Structures are given as C-alpha cells and as structure tokens.
Amino acid sequence: MPINEVEKIWFNGKLIDWKDAKIHILTHGLHYGTGVFEGIRAYETKNGTAVFRLTDHLKRFYRSAKIYFMEIPFTLDELREACKAVVRENHLRSAYVRPIAFRGYGEMGLYPLNSPVDVAVAAWSWGTYLGDEGIRNGIRVKTSSFRRIDVNTIPAGVKATGQYINSVLAKIEAKMAGYDETVMLDSRGMVSEGSGENIFMVRDRAVCTPPTSSGILEGITRETVFHIVEDLGLKLAEKDLTRVDFYYADEAFMTGTAAEVVPVVEMDNYKIGDGKPGPITRRIQEEFYRIVKGESGKYSHWLEPV
Fold first, then answer.
1. Is pTM, for the whole model, over 0.85?
2. Please, what is the end-to-end C-alpha distance for the chain in angstroms?
3. Cα separation values, 236 from 204, 210, 227, 274, Å
4. pLDDT tier at 2 (50, 70, 90 boundaries)?
5. Residues belonging to the active site
6. In the chain, what are the domains?
7. Residues 59, 49 contacting (CB under 8 angstroms)
8. C-alpha dihedral, 108 to 112 to 118 to 123, nearest 10°
C-alpha cells in the first residue's frame, strides 16, 4: 500500500520534517536487518483519536530489542509520548504508527554492539491492509512453499526487521499466484501464521489457533481476540493445526494490527465453509471494531488518547 506523506516524524528525540528523515547508506541495520519495530493503530473514537494498546505494543518493542542486545536510549514513557505526538502533530484522526529502532552508522560486520541505536516513530493515514473488499467478503490464501523460520533458528516472538524477509518471499509467492495472502507452515508442517497475521479457524463453534511453539508472533490483536472469544462464551484452543484442518473448517480468519480481523474464505482452492465469512467471524469482527472505536466500556483502558 502507498505511504501517504505527512509533515513530521519523530527521530532520536526530536520532531523533524518528513523530508529530513534520512540515514547514512552505511547504516548497519540497512545491511544486516538489525532492527526491531512495531505496528500500532490509532482510531477515531467518540472521545477523539486514541491509540489502541499502545503500552502493550511498546512493551513488546522493548522485549524485541532485548533479544538483539539493543539498549533503547529512551524510556517507555518517552516513546509513548512520541507515538502520540506524531499522530497529534500531523493532525491525523486515524493512523498507522510505526516505531522502529535500528543499529545506525558506526561499524560494519556481524558484531553490531559498537554501532549506535537510532530510534524513529512515524505515523500516516493507512487504510485496510488487505482491502475493504477483504474485510467485507473475505480473502483467498495460499499455503506457502517457504516454511516459517524455526523458533530455534531465530526467536519467533521478536518483531525484528531482518526476520521479515521470510514473510516477504511467502507474500510474493502468494500474490504472484493470484491470492490475497499466504499461510506459512512451521518446520514440522503444521500451520504457523500468515506473512504478517495470526490465523484462526472455527469448527463446531470452537475457535482454534496455532500455539506459540509453531513459530508465530504473539500478536496483540490475537490476544485481543482471545478476550472477545471468552466474552462470547465460545471455546478457545491453542493447538497444532494442519492445513487440512483448515480445509475442513467451518470458518477461518486472520488477525493483525494492519489486517485487523479479516475473514478467510478460501485456502488452496478449497472453500472454507460455504465460501463466505461465517457468523462467528462476523461477531468477533464486530466486537473488535466496537472495542477499537471506544464503544466497549470494558476495554476502554486499551485506548490511550493522543
């Protein structure tokens, strides 16, 4: 999706002009993928613009940085304010917010600890990642020939820049084959996740999703859906799932900050259920949008005003 330029970006503690947000060509993270990031959304609510689960996202940001021995030179409170500032100063009613920390210009080579850690936060207006049509009528997905990186190869729970090359290959493969999104299997052949989304299936009114041991990112939206499923009185299971389990499923959907909650209606040319978004998926989707738009008092603490 194209980036809609705005006026300001937060970079290393200061708000600067969008056009001035530049780095050196020999920046370590550009060559070796040594960076961590988050994807966060701000929504327009009846009480003004608010950022959804901002603190939870930033806590994961710091956990990711820890794994790669990156000491973020700003406190969580400072980054929280930076995320709000880029939404506020760019006059955005709703936005996608991208904090990123990366090894900057200093040294080359695979030992990065002598290179500085640079931090930036950008925000811009971004629509539905998989399209309005996908949100309404569902998407078609293809099982990838590229396996999800094993948890003992690279820590799967880390949202690191370099790790996403794995997802890029799978996404390109799916799009070139005429599908909307991909489903990646882990090293055992079990379903893991999409290129940038967690995946769920529904069968006999039970909601199932792959466990963390399958190499998934523990998504913030995934965990939000856990609460919704419990509130709806449905059974929830984290368990190993094969792609054939999805072929037999009554319903399926993907979740993510960018994707939000999107129905999956076809996988590898097999219709899921009747090939239309199912009633449980719709109910979860409706509750999700109620929460992020500030219409659910129970979860109002997840919305942080800008």
1. yes
2. 25
3. 11, 11, 10, 22
4. confident
5. 159
6. 8-124 (3.30.470.10), 132-292 (3.20.10.10)
7. no
8. 100
